[in-house]
Amino acid sequence: MYFRHLYVGVAVSLSLSYQAAVLLAKPFEDPPIILRQQTQSGASPAPAADKTSKEKEQKLPTDKITKPESLPQSALTPEQRLTYIIGVEDELQISVWREPELSTAVVVRPDGMITLPLINDVKAVGLRTEELQNILIDKLKNFVNEPQVTVIVRAIRSRKVYLMGEVGHQGTFPLNGDMTVLELLAAAGGIGPFAKADSIYILREQNGKKVRIPFHYKKAVAGKSENVTLQPGDLIVVP
What we know:
Layout: H1 2-25, H2 78-83, E1 91-96, E2 104-107, E3 113-116, E4 120-123, H3 129-140, E5 149-155, E6 160-165, E7 171-174, H4 181-187, E8 201-206, E9 209-214, H5 217-221, E10 235-238
């Protein structure tokens, strides 16, 4: 029994001695090095910009630049504007500068009058556009300081001619500008196959009477006879 305990003690002692020797033989490990971020000498990191501290720039309202209103297109050529006589059913554009409430489009009534704000009824039939402008300027002086008025004929409806007989399309045709008999017949689809081309005539009012004007179709087509220029109210008959 004594030798058994002695053997165990020696074994434990040898084991402890071996472990101590291993630990002494193992080199010491260097402790981990913690790198710290350092700034350059004498310099400090710039603080982050505080966006909330900056005042937001406000855009100043810019003045609105308004383009001058373009006037409606006239149905008349520059030459016709000087001589055109306003008639019933013509559509007019009355424009008063810087007064949009007074600017309006009107149609000439059967009684020859037009109605405008403030000045009510004004006679337009039988006047040129310039003459009507002057009348409106004079009437508006009681309401507007130095009024500037423009009158434009937007649609010509008072100048009409009439076509009946052996043609493609009978009826009423607007007379916008100068138009000849051949141009009217072409616009109406031409004469029919059974039309009496040499018997065409024009009924025109002259001095309060109806006058019959013969029209020689074949000669006019060949350029050997006058191609009659139409007038408002003419009636062309194709037998």
